Amino acid sequence: MAIPPQTPHPPPSWSRSVTETVRGSHQFTVRGFSLAKGMGPGRHLASDIFAVGGYHWAVYFYPDGKNPDDNANYVSVFVALASDGADVRALFELTLLDQSGRARHKVHSHFDRALQAGPYTLKYRGSMWGYKRFYRRSLLETSDFLKNDCLVLNCTVGVVKNRIETPKNIQFHVPSSDMGRCFKELLSLGIGCDITFEVGDEKVRAHKWILAARSPVFKAQFFGPIGKPDLRRVVVEDVEPVVFKAMVNFIYADELPSIHELAGSVSMWTSTVVVQHLLAAADRYGLDRLRILCEAKLCDELTPETVATTLALAEQHHCAELKTACLKFAAVRENLGVEQKCEAACHCKHRGRVRLSGTRQNDLLDPLDSDGPSF
């Protein structure tokens, strides 16, 4: 007789009950304590309402005590439920801050210790927990808790919450963001382009609204008070075409292009020269993230041959971290001879122009004298 196949048992189901506290704190300052005295037992000063665990709370301070039988010998402090709720379970901590700086605070806390009856239950709106005899007033008035007629109370509430944990059988895989790739594809296909930049002998097409969203200079040029939203053509001077195209690609993709590929596309240019030009363009068009990325890359590529030019560039474009890196590089004993180059570079800004290595004589960048791109 054939034995029928056994049916596999389903995996056991499970659930977990988790009880925990949702904590929040509020600092309540009482200024003019001496003026608050005499308001009478049972009358209080109330803090602003604050939210913890889905409920509203308030701190009540009684300068003459809450209980008339104490004859104003004690100050009273209570935490009150200030929103609708029934059987709200919570833990509390009240701290009177020592203002001498010695951190000898007076603390009444229910956290981190076992409570025989568990958390406290507040039955309805207006229910309170606290101390009628929180501190003897005669001692308070001569203590470090009172300074410049001011008291500071810190209240922490921990609302008890319960939740059920069950196995998550469905898992979602969220793909990484491809927004930069989509925008870059839009640029490469020329879909919807409404502005053309003439850079040297090349033309670069783009979208005004994307450029304006990323660059304050483009935003002012196209949509500012004296901007020209109908502009279709812009002539760009003093920026190499390869550098301008790399900057536009960064605006769309938000990532640094391949510097080595860019350097290979221009005869006699090194990657350092490309990044130097790109930093100048980023500063000119208000692209802070691109400028900082270029600073970081130039720091990594410092050599005795490039440090002087990079230092001069940092001076002109107010790149404090890059300038510091150049000076530290020049101070290393192994780089002796660099100091004289750096000293000369530091004074380049007084001549108004910086000669970037690898550029033609008529392609000098002059960011100090430039007000931005040609509109």
From TrEMBL:
InterPro entries in alphabetical order: BACK_BPM_SPOP, BPM1-6, BTB/POZ_dom, MATH/TRAF_dom, SKP1/BTB/POZ_sf, TRAF-like
Domain BTB: 193-260
Pathway this chain belongs to: Protein modification; protein ubiquitination
Gene3D superfamilies registered for this protein in UniProt: Apoptosis, Tumor Necrosis Factor Receptor Associated Protein 2, Chain A, Potassium Channel Kv1.1, Chain A
MATH domain sequence ranges: 23-157
A Pfam cross-reference name: BTB
PROSITE patterns, sorted: BTB, MATH
Swiss-Prot/TrEMBL GO biological process terms: cellular response to salt stress
Function: May act as a substrate-specific adapter of an E3 ubiquitin-protein ligase complex (CUL3-RBX1-BTB) which mediates the ubiquitination and subsequent proteasomal degradation of target proteins.
Family annotation (PANTHER family): BTB/POZ AND MATH DOMAIN-CONTAINING PROTEIN 1 (PTHR26379), BTB_POZ AND MATH DOMAIN-CONTAINING PROTEIN 3 (PTHR26379:SF293)
Record-stated family: Belongs to the Tdpoz family.
Record-given protein name: BTB/POZ and MATH domain-containing protein 3
Lineage, highest ranks first: Eukaryota, Viridiplantae, Streptophyta, Embryophyta, Tracheophyta
